[in-house]
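Exercise: predict the fold of this chain.
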Amino acid sequence: MNKSELIAAAAQSAGITKKDTERVLNAAIDAITQSLIRGEKVQLSGFGTFETRDRKERTGCNPHNSQPIRIAATRVPAFKPSKALKDSVSG
């Protein structure tokens, strides 16, 4: 499912227009993104938690010439699904 399919499904389920649904979805994504930029966790009950994690500097391998390269430390977004979501998906 891509973003436009998600918007269509949510609009049909909620009984609102696709345009309004798209605005709401974009606002939610923006709010989650801004919270992660500030280093905050975003917990959605029954769905999961969005957070950031710090990756340490490490050594990798250049696939073109097999030479070792230094990969800088960085902060990355992460998602941890809730137990309810895991149970729903697993059946």
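Check your answer against the key: The first strand starts at residue 42 and ends at 44.
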